[in-house]
């Protein structure tokens, strides 16, 4: 068995945290489990903060390596490293809560992210044109027809028809269809999440080497 | 009511854990059972084989979900998939690269890769730089993953985890490099985007079946069987609730 001690620790902590969710707060005799759960979750949050820092350091070091590579050094990595150091330096000097610092960071980040979203919109438009090249069969047709139909319904173009006898009811039924389909998919995802969590609790999945 | 919810939740967890253990028993495991065919996974297996033969790289991106968030199950599936794909591609000339959009996930991806190499008795081949944090925000994660797809001779991109609709850009970048893409997310809007953009997409709970279809182990197969059982239970309960409601019984 791989890393038996760490597996036992992970299973024990997982069980305590899970049990904490099933114990109502008013049940005083089991209050110590709730206290223990809060303590463990608190530790996990601290660890997550440290992990974010380690991850950022890893990102920085990888780009330093790519920037200084003897074969094909990456010029974009130079930009990343420079702006990483500048953001970190000014963030430490001014503090991340400083209005000027936030204004400068936001003024750079927001337009870039908006540009990427604009590119995504164009990408999706082209992808929808190429959909039938990539996907053959009934499902591609159903996907395309329902996408166009629900864009029409969502845009409000069919709103005047709502008042017509009979048609309003049909439209209302059709508008509920995506919600029902979405809930069906979410139920499947919830069942999948349950089994994924149980595999960790049973020690079958171990995303840690120990 | 809170008591009832707690008891139902606890019973469900104990029942599910028991069923996974029962389905994992060797006698039941050997019972003839054929999983539903998922063409996307078949193509993925072929693409992994071709990448190993060609000496091109595999790229697994496991999303941006924090391990502490409500969507962490998809991240765990991403890590299981990463481990299995790493095992399948150990003999490749170009080792697999993993990207993620969360610090915790990047550390876990490094640890998962290290475990895969250690189990295969080649720990010296492990390179921690192969498990990377591509970016700490959703967009920087996407922007940071572009160079991996473009510059590292990647022939197969596996995008499994929690993504926003922006992951469509990665699927498109992969398409432009003529690389195979299999994408799966637990977010509804993202699934719709990926259906239009990605070469192969897994819809709904197929995401959680991926490790089982990659032969990750008997417990994964058992959990897949449990998912099927629970799905029928949920269908039965929905029909029962609808009938009771139709006949005027108030359930709450």
Describe this structure in words.
The complex is a heterodimer of chains A (210) and B (252). With 210 residues, chain A is mostly helical. Chain A is built from seven helices and no strands. Chain A is extended, with a radius of gyration of 26 Å. The termini of chain A are close together. Chain B has one domain (36-217): Rossmann fold (3-Layer(aba) Sandwich). The model of chain B has no long low-confidence stretch (mean pLDDT 89). Chain B has helices at 2-24, 26-29, 39-54, 72-88, 103-119, 138-151, 167-176, 188-197, 206-213, 218-246; strands at 57-63, 97-100, 131-133, 154-162, 180-185, 200-202. Helices cover 59% and strands 13% of the residues of chain B. Chain B has ten helices and six strands. The chains are: A mainly alpha (210), B alpha/beta (252). Chains A and B meet through helix 1, helix 2, helix 4 and helix 7 of A and helix 1, helix 4, helix 5, helix 6 and helix 7 of B.
